[in-house]
Each structure stands twice: as C-alpha cells, then as structure tokens.
Amino acid sequence: MKLETFIAQNAYLAYSYSYPHKNSYREFSSAIPLSQVWENEDKSALFLYLHIPFCEMRCGFCNLFTIANPKTDLQEQYTQALL
C-alpha cells in the first residue's frame, strides 16, 4: 500500500491537536481594546466559539480544559458568567 493511501485511510488514528500552554503567552503592559485590535481586519468571516468545559466523560482526543462529572453549581456559575 502506498504511504499516501495509508495516510488518507488512517488520517485520524494518531490525531493530536493542542493549544500552546497558557505560559506561552506574555502579558500585555496595558489592556488593548478589541475594537483597536480588529479595526483593520476583515470581520466578514468571524465567528464565536464558546467552550463549555463540562462533560459526562472525557473523550480520548480532547485536549481542551474539561471537567468530567462537575458539580452542578459550578456549571451554573460558569454559564451565568458567560451570559
């Protein structure tokens, strides 16, 4: 079997996805308003992703901050903060 065929058929067997660790980022010396950051950017393709980190069980592929079987009050506090 050709390598390209094998990869195409088994693309997600060893799939790994992660974000840089929070310590990889530096702190800004002062807050920068988002309106200033995005003022010269094309905003027609922007979308919003909200991560809800509460799961009944943790998936093997997930590398996001997640709490499996969280206490109910923690879920409520988190969603209220998002709203």
- Output the number of helix runs: 3
- The fraction of residues assigned to DSSP E strands is under 5%
Strands, count: 2
**Largest β sheet strand count, sense and barrel closure:** 2 strands, parallel
- Order of helical and strand elements: HHEEH
Going by helix content, strand content and strand pairing, the class is mainly alpha
Strand order of the largest sheet: 1-2
What is the overall shape? extended
The level of helicity is 25-40%
Terminal-residue CA separation: 52 Å
Question: What is the rounded Rg?
Answer: 19 Å
Residue stretches low in confidence (pLDDT < 50, at least 5 long) are none
Q: Estimate the mean pLDDT confidence.
A: 75
Structure description:
The chain is mainly alpha-helical. Helices cover 28% and strands 5% of the residues. The protein is built from three helices and two strands. The chain has a two-stranded parallel ribbon. It is extended and about 55 Å long. The model has no long low-confidence stretch (mean pLDDT 75).
Features:
3 helices, mainly alpha, 5% strand, extended, 83 residues, two-stranded parallel sheet
Topology summary:
Elements: H1 3-9, H2 34-38, E1 54-55, E2 67-68, H3 72-82
Parallel strand pairs: 1-2
Give me a quick take on this structure.
The chain is built from three helices and two strands; from the N terminus they run ααββα.
